[in-house]
Amino acid sequence: MTNQKKFKRQETQIWQHLQWEPSPQQLEQFNQLQYLLREWNQKINLTRLIEGNDFWISQILDSLWPIQDELKFQDKQINIIDVGTGCGLPGLAVAIALPRSSTTLIDSIYRKTSAVKEIVKELGLLSRVNVLTERIELTGQKKLHRHTFDLAIARAVAKAPVLAEYLIPFLKPTGQAVMYKGKWNDLEKKELLKALSKLKGKIDTTKSLELPERRGIRHAIRISSTMLCPGKYPRSVGIPLKRPLNNQTSDNL
Ligand SMILES: C[S@@+](CC[C@H](N)C(=O)[O-])C[C@H]1O[C@@H](n2cnc3c(N)ncnc32)[C@H](O)[C@@H]1O
Predict the structure, then answer these.
(1) What's the pLDDT tens digit per position in 171-230?
(2) Of all atoms in ligand 1, which is nearest to the CA of residue 136?
(3) Domains recognised in the chain with CATH numbers
(4) Residue of 107, 141, 233 best suited for mutating to test ligand 1, as the one with most atoms within 8 Å of CB
(5) Does 179 sit in the ligand 1 pocket, CB within 6 Å?
(6) pLDDT tens digits for 137-150?
(7) What is the ipTM of this complex?
(8) What percent of the chain has pLDDT over 90?
(9) Three-state secondary structure readout of the chain
(10) Could you say which residues bind S-adenosyl-L-methionine here?
(11) pTM value?
């Protein structure tokens, strides 16, 4: 089998996993994203997962499987935020897959966000994808962004209690946050629940997927608010990480 045919078969497998298939324009945008990441990676170190199935499985499938629920409603206009976006993922893959959504991507590292801004421009997504260079703790306290998102997502940014403090304040009362996790166990769940009790949040669902090609197991933890998140969260820059909310004495500012 030629490499091209073999790859076509693997690509089809990815969409089968998602029970969703991109339109020709979306597929073109995913291909363009791969090309642009490759180009930018030569200038600054953005990600090592760019070629072949490193990109299609470990980036695209890994970004999209946790939002399978949203993929079923392509026409819904939703407001999404990706915190700690790094090279632009999972946010850019989600923005391409949900063409009526508006997405905000945040990272505090300027060299990453300036590359991601250029990528957004090249992909033709400027009208509905906004890139911010900022600490999540500051964005989460701004009226413009607080309680304004239907979906808040984060992959590989921090441990669950820290992530919950970053994500919950962004949610509308009906919104949900999705934490993309590699490993997940009862201890982590217990720690997350402790943090959520302070943030007035709850766990809605926990899903898992074994990525193809033995790329490991992934978990998606969906959380939401039970009532409005107390105004003191997220705490000042660096505090959520230094004193995570699962720790009894952590709540002193
Ligand atoms: C390991 S990278 C993950 C990037 C991307 N989400 C992915 O899955 O490939 C974590 C990113 O989160 C950003 N980050 C972590 N804590 C942050 C904070 N408090 N405010 C803004 N960005 C943060 C870092 O700058 C880094 O780019």
Answers:
(1) 999 999 999 999 999 999 999 999 999 999 999 999 999 999 889 999 999 999 999 999
(2) 20
(3) 22-242 (3.40.50.150)
(4) 107
(5) no
(6) 999 999 999 999 99
(7) 0.99
(8) 85
(9) CCHHHHHHHHHHHHHHHHCCCCCHHHHHHHHHHHHHHHHHHCCCCCCCCCCHHHHHHHHHHHHHHHHHHHHCCCCCCCEEEEECCCCCCCHHHHHHHCCCCEEEEEECCHHHHHHHHHHHHHCCCCCCEEEEECCHHHHCCCCCCCCCEEEEEEECCCCHHHHHHHHHHHEEEEEEEEEEECCCCHHHHHHHHHHHHHHCEEEEEEEEEECCCCCCEEEEEEEEECCCCCCCCCCCCCHHHHCCCCCCCCCCC
(10) 84, 89, 136-137, 155
(11) 0.95
Unique residue bearing structure tokens 């984060």: 154
